[in-house]
Structures are given as C-alpha cells and as structure tokens.
Amino acid sequence: MHPPLIVDAHEDIAYNMLTFGRDYTRSVAETRRIEMASGSEAPEHNGQTLIGWPEYQRGRVAVVFSTLFATPVRRKTSNWDKQAYANYDQAHRLYRTQLDTYHDLTDRCPDQFQLITRRAHLETVLADWADSSLGSHPVGLVPLMEGAEAVRNPPELDEWWEAGLRMIGLAWAGTRFCGGTRDPGPLTDDGRALLAAMADFGFTLDLSHMDELSARQSLDLYEGPVIASHANAAALLPGYEGNRLPPDEVIKGLIARDGIIGVVPFCAFLKADWKKGDSRDGITLETLTAHVDHICQMAGDARHVGLGSDFDGGFGLNAVPVDVDTIADLQKLAPILEGKGYNDEAVAAILGENWLRHLRTYLPT
Ligand SMILES: [Zn+2]
Predict the structure, then answer these.
(1) pLDDT tens digit string along 188-213?
(2) How many angstroms is it from 135 CA to the middle of ligand 1?
(3) pLDDT at res. 350
(4) What whole-number distance in Å separates Cα of residue 147 and Cα of residue 170?
(5) What's the CA-to-centroid distance between 209 and ligand 1, angstroms?
(6) Which of these, 109, 110, 76, lies nearest to 94 by C-alpha position?
(7) pLDDT digits (tens, 9 = 90+) for 166-191
(8) What is the pLDDT at residue 77?
C-alpha cells in the first residue's frame, strides 16, 4: 500500500517564480543553498522555501491549486514586492502573466508539471501516480485566483475561463467586490454581479480572505461550488483578533454547501498571539489536526476538510510547525490522524481525496 496522495489547495508558485526567481523543479535543499550563496532576498522577505519538486514526489503531492496573486499597492510593504498593482489594468496584466507562467512551466517541463483545467487532465495525472512502475510523476496544477481585482468586468470572465482559470477568491484585502482581510465589509453590487457571472461558467468560489459578512452573503447567494482553500478555524484560537480566519458559522455554511476547507500549517494560524520571529516550540502538526478534527466534528464526517498549506505564501521554514521541514512532511499527518481514530479512508479523504472529489465533480469535461 502506498501512502495516500496529497492535494494542496493553496501555493503561490507563480508569485515566487516571478518575484524571487524561485525554480520549483529544484529540491528544497538546493533552493535554500542557492539563495544563501547568492544573497537572494527571498529568505529574508518570504522565509526559507518549503517547496520543491523532489519533495512533491517524496510527499506524494499529486495536485496543487496554484495561485495567481498580486498585492494591491496600498498594502505593499517594500520595493522588493514587484507584483503590486495600483489599478485594475495593472492587476489584470500581473495576474494574466502569472497564469501564462503556469502555461509556460507546464509546456517546458511536462514530466514535472501538468496543467489541470479539465477532468481528463486530472485523470491523466492520477493514472500516472497510480502506476507504481513509473519512477516519478507529474504534479497537476489547478489555477486559482486570489483577489479578483484582475477581473475588470464580468464579461471578461470568458477570457479567464478560456485561459484555464477555474477558481476565484473575491478578496485578499478588501476589493470592490467585498470586504476582505483587515477590511471588513459586505458583498457589493459589483460583487453580486461577478458572482452571478461566475456561476454561469461554474467557477469554484474561494471564500478565504473574505470578511465574515461577505462570506455569509456569498454562501446564501452563490449558485456554483464553494470552498475555503486556506483557512483554519478561528474558534480554536482563543484571543484571536482579526477577520482572516472563519468563525464556525462560516465553516458550517461551507459544510452545508458541500464545501471543503483547506487547513494551514502556519504558526500564526495555530496560536493566536504568534508573530514572526517567535519560537515554534510546542506548535506541531498535532496542533493542526485539532483544526481538522474540529471541522470533522462539525460535519459529522471527514468529507469537508483538506490541506491548503499556503507554503512560501509570505512565510517559510521558521513559521511552520516544528515537525515540518518541507512539504513532504505533510505525510506525517497520516499517522497522527490514525492515532486519533481516523481510519484509512478518512485519512486519504483529508489528505487528498476530498479535493479530488471536488475537482471530479466540478471541472468541465
Ligand atoms: Zn492567502
């Protein structure tokens, strides 16, 4: 028996490639060594990398939801952040370049990365992983837009869908569509119009980063599939202040809509007062499984939780549980969950099968 496949619902791969020149065909150790030797600013600004293709193989990470992400200029912290936009045209250009980056990567390195925009692409990747006579397997990338300012108007969704985009989160910071992280607020008229148009195509709506009010309104309103690609349960962080993590009401709403929540192995989402530079002592993958368990208890089954690591998404090695060195270590969740009484089927569902069910159901044929 092989260990279960992992599906990771959130990694800012293109952002790292374009901002820091990271090459994810390399191993984690190689990237760390090269960045150290070259004096790259990546480790200082984004932490030491947690991702590399050999680690995807070792961890059996078969599919990644790979993001398009750029920073609104009012939240830009420093000049190293070149992926920042001041208006919708700039956002459109940056996000489109990131989507093109995934096309280029998968054209250039098809043995290592393949784009998944249709069900047949998914089945091709999974068939490869199921064939143990093969030495290595391609990682499937499903494009996910984080923050929707790049969609200049609803009719433009046609262009994005044709280019392979399948999932959209309306917010990072607040947008003209809705309230977002550190910008509370409701869904706007523009937001309602975009959701109506998204449903016509069948885009998956990602509620991560949406303010509670706009998330709840979207759960009521959106007629297409809903997820939270990367979010932990706010209820498990006593003293947590902020609107980045969903309260139980939003998680319940997602479960009721057959949604899935990807839990995040990021110290600040596991301990309320943790800040960059703090010790990671006592924060482990076991801490993360409390969030898995919380969601499963609310759902009454193990069908509504998965992983959304957000690795290399603004944090690195010094901000993840102490028992994680690379993405391959997410496989350590399997024995921890077994120890808590989860059976093989439930463990496989949590590590990857739930996201695969979502993709099989909602990707176009
Ligand atoms: Zn995010």
Answers:
(1) 999 999 999 999 999 999 999 999 99
(2) 33
(3) 99
(4) 5
(5) 7
(6) 76
(7) 999 999 999 999 999 999 999 999 99
(8) 87
Which helix or strand (DSSP H or E) is residue 114 part of?
A: strand 113-115
**The 3-state secondary structure of 67-88, one letter per residue:** EECCEEHHHCCCCCCCCEECCH
Phi then psi for residue 93, to 5 deg, are -65, -45
Nearest to 149 by CA among 95, 80, 217, 188: 95
How many percent of the chain have pLDDT more than 70? 100
CA–centroid distance, 288 to ligand 1, in Å, is 17
Dist. CA 310 → ligand 1 center (Å): 7
Whole-number Å distance between alpha carbons of 351 and 2: 13
From 254, 164, 263, select the one nearest 212 (Cα to Cα).
254
Q: Which of 257, 157, 168 is nearest to 207 (CA)?
A: 168
pLDDT of residue 78: 87
CA of 233 to the centre of ligand 1 (A): 15
- At 64-84, the pLDDT tens digits run 999 999 999 999 988 899 899
